[in-house]
């Protein structure tokens, strides 16, 4: 009830002792309710942020809202134990809220609830802006504002999405303690450019075994976002294994364009692919880089480093043909891991060795590795030979010159074998013996052979002999054994010579002794010729993979 007309309210009264005094007490009872603001962000493609975007809020309150709670103390907690930090006042809800991530589960919230009295709740909360450190260019749209009570029911507030504000003047009394709490959530959606890069090895000439070769890298720039953007500056940054020397680098918009390209120079070890080009929403752009390089096996070079090494699926700098991309800030939404690419350069070693049936003071690198002929007789290392390798059949092209010469100047650790690492995979070669040991015959004709990679990553070496090697009529004077390598040393069938700590692909050339003239009064040459003919008729022209371990 309202006080009578003309009555003057007082805050205290006094009476005389033993006298009666009459007064009227007037009071109002208002329900206390609690409000808290939350923030949710969503994106086009579920992007994540290094520094989470934040939203700024301001609040205003009428004098009635402020005066209604004067002298009263707000509850310290809600019915469910949540903290209440005091009464809503002018500016009391002005603060910055930062979600912990993208999506409803990662919403940001004010630290505590604030209390207000029903019937005296003419206050307004307004979102004033979004701040995104990771991408200042992204555009934010307020997509939803909701206010629900502690039971999940909508609350009678006035929402204005155009002004991004909520007014609480119309909030009525709650029907339960749980319903006293009000949670209001602002949801903003980000529209942005989603630029990313990917670097891959498209063509690897290092797998051919050639000393000088090309490797082509394909760089793809993509914008999967809803805003137009650009590539920014993109640079190609190689860090190849020591011993792989870059001869030239060319850059083009397609792989075919590389054939007509002009070499570019590096600045500080970086090759600029583009200064910046437009990258509209939902488009991709390709760039190609061709590196011509030469591998070396000079002193100090560790050829095992020519193979790529990965840690957690990511190539490691300094191994193989490792190359990274340097891109502009805010231009690589999916991270730098797929900017790194690597191509291996396996070194294919072929060992050429000479063997005979006569015991010598030499031994094979692995003493338990005994090579035998088709009769089970042991073969022994034999020094004194020299060889040449041709890339054309010298029987067909009389002017052919050897591409590799194996002689006393480049013999291996022991004088009966050589190793070469310059032969290409899939190409046919011919091995010619140019000098035989004293008392032995030269190979009667060239040995055709082809090398191929043994394993999917290009490592290891298979040796395939030419078809004519299985013709005993053409190979009656010598036997040739060939062995594949075993790069990981785990195969029980590895039989090539162990050189540099690995079973290597090997070709072992076995010679027979020439007959010697008898001394006077002897039986003459013919018994020896007959015996040699009988033995040679049963000899196997090409024998593969025979080994007996002691």
Question: What is the CATH level 1 assignment of the largest domain?
Answer: Mainly Beta
Distance between the termini: 116 Å
CATH H-level homologous superfamily name of the largest domain: Immunoglobulins
C-alpha-based Rg, rounded: 44 Å
Name the assembly state. single chain
Tally of extended strands?
37
CATH architecture of the largest domain: Sandwich
Number of helices: 2
The tally of structural domains comes to 3
**CATH topology grouping of the largest domain:** Immunoglobulin-like
Strand content: 35-45%
Going by helix content, strand content and strand pairing, the class is mainly beta
Overall shape: it is rod-shaped
Give the helix proportion (percent range).
Answer: under 10%
Ranges where pLDDT stays below 50 over 5 or more residues in a row are 516-550
Major sheet size, sense and barrel closure: 6 strands, mixed
Instruction: Give the integer mean of the pLDDT values.
Output: 87
